[in-house]
Amino acid sequence: MFDIHPPHHAASTWRDFFIHIATIVIGLLIAVGLEQIVEFFHHRHQAHQMRESLREESLENQEIAQTDIETLDGWVRDYRAQMDLLQAAPVKEGKVAVTLTPPQIRNGWFPLSDAAWLNVRDGGGLPLLPRDLAGNYWRVNYVVQEAILQGHDFFHTLYEVRSLQHIHGGVLIYTPEERTQLVSRMIQMDGELRNLRSTMGYFLMVNKLALNNEKVTPASFKQTRSESLPPLPWTFTPSLQEESPTASETPH
Question: What does each C-alpha distance from 195 to 7, 150, 231 come to in angstroms?
């Protein structure tokens, strides 16, 4: 708000009138110019703070993703070993008795963070950032959201698997139908783990480009992909075939 004070005495000539108008105009221009300069440096400071917060979050997420990938690989190996034991266990008197190797104690699952991005987006800060930078972090956040959704699906299936594993209160004796149901859920979980692991690898590549201030394009992504994660350390061909009953179990 600008205060414009009336002159102490009325203009007696046209010259005095135009001098007074010119003084007002020049004063307004100076005031507006000073305000724009202050606003420019304020926005510049805001943009710097937002860039730093996005970079810090990306660096933290880079470490989280690498740790989570190691955890995912360990879970896959653990549960595939259980599937092998389940499918190899013989059926005796209509029951499947099996001793499952418990999963190893591993690092917990840490979700990726998007708090800094949400603060920038919802706080109206995107117009203050360079277009390429905003576009890069938009793509990074898109992958973060995909990983969060896939993580929800995986943990939902994991809880189903654990419930089926303890369907008889810790006594690992199943009917063939229960075993088939359990292995089926494990195979579903295996696929969800692979998808989540792939998404986390994709995140590492896109996030790396954003941290290096490189524009995320199909060409840059293809180049980064060749330098990305090592091949998957596990392969698996599931089988749900049940053993045919032995001669002693064949009904007469």
Answer: 75, 8, 14
